[in-house]
Write a structure and sequence with these properties.
mainly alpha, two-stranded antiparallel sheet, globular, 2 strands
């Protein structure tokens, strides 16, 4: 299990509408000054009150940690927390060796997995074709808008997990 699994589980399985910056920093395992840096860089957008919406925290967490670590931490609750189209899937491809080497070097430099680097690069591809794909793939538009579109879903997740734990 990932060392910060309990923080991941808290963000995705016990979502709150908003988080004070102190709590958000604690859940991410970073100093408040580092959180402030991410806010100043535009990576996290708090409300006018300074509170951080769940959708912002969840979106940032998906980039902050490797998705494989998030999915591992969520375990059997993964389906309740992350929409199916956003969950990791295996794909075997054949691409020119220089692209493989480039992905490996960039991943090593960024201290990320090749999966993560490639997934981030494919975001532009997905965005470019998003209108057409939304008509071709059921649930695609909702997956693309997640987690901002998932507040109601998050409330339902919290309710189901609470019922499962408390009975």
């Amino acid at each position: 299990m990932v060392p910060y699994a309990s923080r991941i589980r808290s963000i995705f399985l016990q979502p709150k509408t908003t988080y004070e910056p102190t709590e958000a920093a604690m859940l991410l395992g970073i100093a408040q000054t580092e959180l402030r840096g991410w806010i100043d860089a535009g990576e996290i957008e708090p409300l006018e009150t300074g509170a951080i919406p769940w959708s912002e925290l969840a979106s940032f967490a998906m980039d902050f940690w490797e998705q494989a670590e998030i999915e591992s931490a969520l375990g059997a609750d993964l389906a309740d927390a992350i929409p199916e189209l956003l969950r990791l899937a295996d794909l075997e491809v054949r691409i020119p060796r220089f692209q493989v080497v480039a992905l490996e070097r960039v991943a090593a430099h960024d201290r990320r997995s090749v999966d993560t680097v490639l997934s981030r690069e494919l975001r532009d591809f997905v965005s470019t074709h998003s209108e057409w794909l939304s008509h071709q793939i059921p649930g695609f538009a909702a997956a693309l808008a997640w987690p901002a579109s998932a507040r109601e879903r998050a409330d339902g997740v919290a309710r189901r997990v609470h019922e499962r734990l408390c009975g």
